[in-house]
Specification:
Layout lengths: L3 H17 L1 E2 L2 E2 L7 H11 L2 H8 L6 H10 L13 H7 L21 H21 L20 H8 L5 H13 L3 H17 L3
Length: about 200
C-alpha cells in the first residue's frame, strides 16, 4: 500500500488535470508528468517534508558561535595574535554574516561558502584551546577529548558536539588523528572537523 499510494495520488491528479485542463484554477500548459519519474524522484530525494528541512538549514548566528566557542574554553575576546581564534572571530564578523547595526543590516542567515570556510578556520585555530580548556569547563563535567593513548574520548566528543557521540563520530575522530602527519596536528584537525560538521549542518 505504501508504494502504491504515491502512484495512485499522482495518477488521480494527472487525470484531473487532463480532464479539466487546469490545476488549482491555473491553466495546464505542459505535458502531463510521468508518474514513474516522480516516484523515482521521491524515492531518491525523499518526501518534500524531509527535503525542505535538509535544504532549509540556516547558519549559526554570530553571537551563538561566540557563545559556543567560549563555552568550550576559547578566549573569544582575545586581542593577541592575528591568527588566534578570538581574533579571527572578531575580524571575520562580515564573512560570518554578523549584523551591521550602523548600516541597518540584519544578520545573514544563509550558510554560504565564505561563512563555512571562515567557521572552519576558527575551529582549526580554536582546537588547541578547546582541547586544553575542556576539562575545566563546567559544561563538560571534566571530560577530556583524548585519552593518554591519543584516542578520542566519547565524553569529550559528546561535549564538543553538544549531543551524544556515536561510534561513527569516534571512528572519524580516531582516523583523522591516525592519518595526520603528527599526533598534535591530527588532534587539531579532528576537533575542527567534528565541530564544523556539528555546527554547519553537515
Amino acid at each position: 500500500m505504501h508504494k502504491l499510494g504515491p502512484i495512485l495520488l499522482f495518477l488521480s491528479i494527472s487525470a484531473a488535470a487532463a480532464c479539466t485542463g487546469e490545476i488549482d484554477g491555473e491553466p495546464f500548459t505542459g505535458p502531463p508528468p510521468n508518474p514513474y519519474e516522480e516516484l523515482e524522484r521521491l524515492q531518491r530525494e525523499g518526501p518534500p517534508r524531509y527535503t525542505s528541512r535538509v535544504h532549509g538549514c540556516t547558519k549559526m548566528r554570530y553571537r551563538t558561535l561566540g557563545n559556543v566557542l567560549a563555552s568550550r574554553g576559547v578566549l573569544v575576546a582575545a586581542t593577541g595574535a592575528e591568527t588566534s581564534a578570538g581574533r579571527i572571530y572578531a575580524d571575520g564578523a562580515a564573512a560570518l554574516g554578523a549584523p551591521n547595526y550602523g548600516a541597518r543590516a540584519r544578520e545573514t542567515i544563509e550558510l554560504g561558502l565564505a561563512t563555512t570556510s571562515k567557521m572552519f578556520d576558527i575551529f582549526v585555530q580554536a582546537a588547541p584551546e578547546i582541547i586544553a580548556g575542556m576539562p575545566n569547563r563546567i559544561e563538560c563535567s571534566g571530560a577530556q577529548l583524548f585519552d593518554p593513548l591519543n584516542r578520542c574520548n566519547a565524553d569529550g566528543v559528546s561535549c564538543l558536539l553538544g549531543m551524544p557521540a556515536t561510534s561513527a563520530h569516534l571512528q572519524i575522530c580516531d582516523q583523522t588523528v591516525a592519518r595526520a602527519a603528527d599526533v598534535e596536528s591530527g588532534k587539531r584537525l579532528a576537533v575542527a572537523v567534528l565541530a564544523a560538521a556539528a555546527h554547519t549542518c553537515e
